[in-house]
Fold this protein.
Amino acid sequence: MERAQKIRDICGRFRILVIGRANAGKTTILKVVCDSTEDPEIFNSQGRKIKSTVLTPSEKRGQHNIENEMVFRSNPGFIFHDSLGFEAGDTDELKKVEAFIAQRSEQTKLQDQVHAIWYCIPMDDTRPFTKAEESFFSDCGTGRVPVIAIFTKFDAQDHKAYRALRNEEVPIENAGHQAALRAEQECQPVLNRIYESRYGPKSHVYLRDMHKPKAQCDELMEKTASTLNDEVLKLLFVSTQRNNLKLCIEHALTRDIMREIVRFGKTQTLDKHASNVGSHGMKKDDIFRVHCGVMLWFPHIVVNDSEHNPCGMTIS
């Protein structure tokens, strides 16, 4: 089945703009997303590889360029652009982001557009939601590009909630179980302010313990996929990410298998004695179509639709 490859040929790679202050945990998140321990390779807008310290605490602001593309060798299907985030009273970076989003939205080719925005808000900061965040969600329209608010380093809030519970004389074990929920409840006023803004996010996620080995960001993948209204982009995103097999299975089931079951139940009138009909009543062509449709959601699996090996699979 060549449809998945054709989609990649048309769309190129999935492009994400990552916004957040220094030390917001952006690099850590991207490494988990791409299952990498190495820093990304940096390319300029002409596609030439450059040396850079973008996204590291020691970055030199003069070398930063939002047009630069960050690509991880472990998963080159994603392209990331970095904005340094907005400091209080600094409107220059906000204008750069607005201009970048506008310029990308005017591109005629889907592969050159921004497909999603991840806005990282570090929750280990004493003031996680500042005037800078208010400015973005109030003034920066992103058009059809969905924004996912990522509350990074949220384990800091868990620890804070745990201490509060212990001060209230909640037993240690109970406090440990209740801390995460208490932390999210304490964050609700901030969350409400963001969603009530003129350009509020489409979704949000709390990320904890991303610095630890075997850290996962399944919820970020799921929330991002859920905000994509374009089916081609959704397929591109789900099949590009490699660390959430459950997400691939869910989309394959809900968007291909169930759709074909409904279609079959409503429209099929079959002759079970025909040579192209299986014992279950479905035509072999229908089975093949379902099989190929399902496999589109799974990364790096090639469906061989040759005459000698119908519905065969190989891992690329």
Notes: Residues 57-63, 269-279, 310-316 have pLDDT under 50 and may be disordered. The CA atoms of residues 60 and 314 lie 45 Å apart. The first helix runs from residue 3 to 11.
